[in-house]
Specification:
- With about 800 residues, the chain is mostly beta strands.
- The chain contains eleven helices and 46 strands.
- The strands form ten sheets. Strands 27, 28, 29, 30, 31, 33, 34, 35, 37 and 39 form a ten-stranded antiparallel β-sheet that branches. It has a seven-stranded parallel β-sheet with strand order 2-3-1-6-7-8-9, with helices on both faces. Strands 23, 25, 26, 32, 36 and 38 form a six-stranded antiparallel β-sheet that branches.
- The protein starts with about 40 loop residues before the first helix and ends with a strand.
């Protein structure tokens, strides 16, 4: 102030401080890990620049499902995920109640204990863990691509064999993993593995898997599942490694040759797509650390649309080689595919061979704005060129948000087989390129029922809970409770015998290629109109292609579910017509290869009163029952290892279907199939007989039995209303357990009357005080259901009491708010 008052002084201020025009990154020079010079792959994927963007991924957990991790390795010990409940709890106690005792850093599913430490020469998992997240800047060894990320160690095998991968993946999902890295696989599709992967995706977990090292284009699982990010390997010249698998099912590539990383008590080089996979998993951790909560689909888009081209693999890998920096920069525009709508040109909802159709794609543009976006339907990059796209759409100057394409035209060529076919979608977002592969259903031979809390797939060639065990080209829901992570059924089939031959599609005597039933021309499975509360599918198939070695029948199949019902059941009618001359005595049955987790701990039961065969496991129960009134001719618990290991011949099937029920159950815990058959008597030319079965399931055996009773009661109502066959009249009075029970809003009470009766159904509280009269009237003979609305009741234990002049019974129910 004094200076400013002097004559001749125009301005006085503190000299400003200025800075050079360069931003100093948080990364303070090259990491001090002494072996980082041997990690050529870090420079190739732009790790140094990526670390300028994200310097800490400690909020991300990567599950390494492998053959163990060296938990004492000095470069990994600080990177381990820690179960804080167990760390702060008591030894020998399941402190967090997750079903695993002392799972401090993961679990050993191979030895079934809390120590997933790698042993002996099992370096593989340790090497993978170090690539993803070895501690950086600790003056030791190497650096992982994802600084600070946590490694959840899950041992699922030993040597070069993974036997417990499903269970390990379930653990990872249920215990908070963000990413699951799978550096293993095989060429066989697995329905259980598929179910677990879909469960993980539904819970927001990103799965990344190795494409394999055989140099082929055939699908390699689990990498080839649509929801998994499949990883090929590139070499030191940035070319696709010659031993790496490749093809339209491979999403991305990463360095995988001569990768230096941690091993048990040491460090060394290894090569393979096994090494490329945790590298991509680590980059995914960088992505999630910059944008927590991204969906697996968005993580995939960030990875694939941030890649660099691979000169020798433009049609071998759908995107390119991973670039950590380009993926981690969240301000770059990225297109995420949310959904697709397929519209056929004749309006019946089914795309058929030779037909034009349209696809409409729903995207989200995330990150920054995009100057130009091109979406184009293609076919030239795929080995299966059954579909040919010709549509494209361009957006310019787009801000982040939802973008929906107009209808893009596609044609299914005339020789396209029924089933699912891949279609390539080319995507260009400014300078970034990607190729998406979407699956298009062409007149699929199956449909899936919504059956209360259960979904069941049925086909137009006699299979149910359908799994394509021959070609592995179809993935269907199978038979699954909606709140369970995996399905209950590997494969199910209708079986018919004339006393000499057997028609079915359940395995075979030679190469498991048995498919007797063929869809009748025009008999493709379709939805038909049912009652207002029903979902009904119909199909027609026959078996005379190999006559006289088949049974000479045509089958009209009608499957009925109740989406809003209170029981998990599906009713299936089989209208069986003899279409060849003569007259034979027929038996009809259902075969099911149940796989209820854990599949080697299943047990089989036979409930003669309910006419029900069912299988139980640790995760629930499922079975099949006869609703129509034919006598049961055979039922058996079939040991999959000893009895199916050498094939499943017609003679074996015939013997079971006609051999009685003396071997219908077993309490021994192992992998079982089961078969339940009835005798329908003689059939002559053009004569039709209808057999009705139900498929039932539950979270426990008691839940299953309640569903079976609900199916019986519903069948009684259905037959009385529709009368397509003689009305089913019960032979005795009964009051079934309510379902669901416990319940929180409504429950279903089923009872049976063998004759017209005056009926009183009363609700009592725990002290025996009458709460409400539910039914007080005269009812006809048959199966009856009463839905109890408990909105006005308080939580607690109640009793329902059924009274007639000849019968009284009481059941307990529990209301839980």
């Amino acid at each position: 102030q004094s200076l400013s008052e002097l004559d001749g002084v125009e301005a006085v201020e503190v000299a400003p401080e200025r800075h050079t025009a360069i931003q100093k990154p948080e990364l303070d020079g090259i990491p001090n890990d002494p072996f980082i010079a041997y990690q050529w792959h870090l420079d190739r994927v732009a790790a140094w620049t990526a670390w300028d963007v994200v310097n800490d991924a400690s909020d991300v957990t990567i599950a390494i499902v492998d053959i163990g991790v060296d938990l004492d390795h000095p470069d990994l010990v600080d990177a381990l995920w820690t179960n804080t409940s167990e760390a702060n709890g008591q030894n020998g106690v399941d402190d967090d109640g997750n079903g695993f005792i002392d799972d401090l850093h993961g679990w050993d599913f191979y030895s079934d204990d809390g120590d997933p430490n790698a042993t002996g020469q099992d370096h593989h998992g340790t090497h993978c863990a170090g690539i993803a997240a070895a501690t950086r800047n600790n003056q030791l060894g190497v650096s992982g691509i994802a600084p600070g990320a946590k490694i959840m160690a899950l041992r699922a095998g030993s040597g070069n064999s993974i036997q417990r991968g499903f269970e390990a993946m379930l653990y990872a999902v249920d215990n908070g993993a963000d990413i699951i890295s799978l550096s293993w696989g095989g060429n066989i599709f697995s329905i259980l593995e598929y179910d677990v992967i879909e469960y993980a995706i539904a819970h927001g977990v990103t799965l990344i898997a190795a494409a394999g090292n055989s140099g082929w284009q055939y699908e390699y699982y689990p990498a080839a599942y649509e929801s998994v990010i499949a990883v090929s390997a590139t070499d030191t010249e940035d070319q696709l490694w010659n031993a790496s698998n490749r093809g339209y099912w491979v999403d991305i590539a990463a360095p995988g040759v001569d990768i230096f990383s941690t091993e048990i008590n040491s460090y060394d080089y290894q090569s393979g797509t096994s090494m490329a996979t945790p590298l991509v998993a680590g980059v995914a951790a960088l992505v999630l650390s910059t944008e927590p909560g991204l969906s697996p689909q968005a993580v995939r888009a960030r990875l694939t649309q941030g890649t660099n081209p691979i000169p020798n693999a433009t049609t071998q890998v759908m995107s390119g080689r991973v670039n950590a920096y380009r993926s981690a920069v969240s301000s770059k525009p990225t297109m995420v595919l949310n959904s697709m709508v397929v519209t056929d040109n004749n309006g019946d909802g089914i795309v058929e061979p030779g037909q034009f159709f349209d696809i409409t794609l729903d995207f989200d543009l995330i990150g920054g704005s995009a100057s130009s976006i091109l979406v184009e339907a293609l076919s030239f990059v795929l080995p299966d060129e059954s579909l040919e796209g010709s549509g494209a759409h361009v957006w310019v100057d787009q801000q982040p948000g939802q973008l929906i394409t107009p209808a893009l035209p596609v044609i299914a060529r005339n020789n396209t087989r029924r089933g699912t076919h891949p279609l390539a979608i080319s995507l260009r977002v400014d300078e970034r390129r990607d190729t998406l592969v979407v699956n298009i259903p062409i007149d699929p031979p199956y449909k899936t029922h919504d059956a209360s809390n259960m979904e069941v797939t049925v086909t137009d060639f006699g299979a149910f809970g359908y799994f394509d065990y021959l070609y592995y080209t179809e993935t269907t829901p199978g038979l699954r409770l909606l709140d369970q992570p995996v399905g209950y059924l590997f494969h199910g089939s209708l079986m018919v015998t004339d006393g000499d031959n057997v028609s079915d599609n359940a395995y075979g005597s030679d190469d498991n290629d048995r498919h007797d039933f063929l869809t009748v021309n025009g008999g493709n499975i379709r939805e038909v109109e049912g009652q207002h509360d029903q979902q009904v599918f119909e199909a027609t198939y026959y078996d005379i292609t190999n006559f006289p070695d088949d049974t000479g029948i045509r089958i009209l199949q009608r499957s009925i579910s109740y989406p809003d019902g209170l029981g998990n059941f599906l009713i299936i009618e089989y209208h069986i017509t003899r279409i060849v001359s003569g007259s034979e005595n027929y038996n009809v049955g259902l075969y099911a290869d149940w796989d209820i987790q854990s599949i080697n701990k299943n047990q089989v039961y036979f409930d003669e009163g309910r006419r029900l065969s069912y299988t139980t496991g640790e995760a629930g129960a499922a079975g099949m029952m006869v609703l129509s009134d034919e006598p049961i001719s055979g039922s058996k618990a079939i040991d999959n290892v000893t009895e199916l290991g050498d094939g499943f011949t017609d003679d074996e099937k015939l013997e079971i279907m006609t051999g009685g029920t003396s071997s219908a159950q077993s309490a021994i815990r192992r992998d079982w199939s089961s078969l339940l058959a009835v005798d329908i008597g003689s059939l002559s030319l053009d004569e039709t007989h209808t057999v009705i079965f139900a498929l039932v399931a539950g979270e426990t055996a008691n839940h299953l039995l309640a569903s079976a009773d609900a199916a019986r009661a519903t069948f009684g109502r259905y037959t009385a209303e529709n009368d397509p066959y003689s009305e089913s009249i019960p032979t005795s009075f009964s009051l079934s357990s309510a379902y669901p029970n416990p319940f929180n809003a409504t429950t279903q009470i089923n009872f049976a009357l063998p004759q017209r009766s005056n009926v009183t159904l009363t609700l009592y509280d725990l002290l025996g005080r009458e709460v409400q009269t539910l039914v007080n009237t005269t009812l006809q003979a048959g199966y009856h259901t009463h839905s109890l609305d408990a909105n006005s009741l308080v939580s607690g234990v109640y009793f329902i009491r059924l009274e007639t002049s000849e019968f009284t019974d009481t059941k307990k129910i529990i209301l839980m708010r």
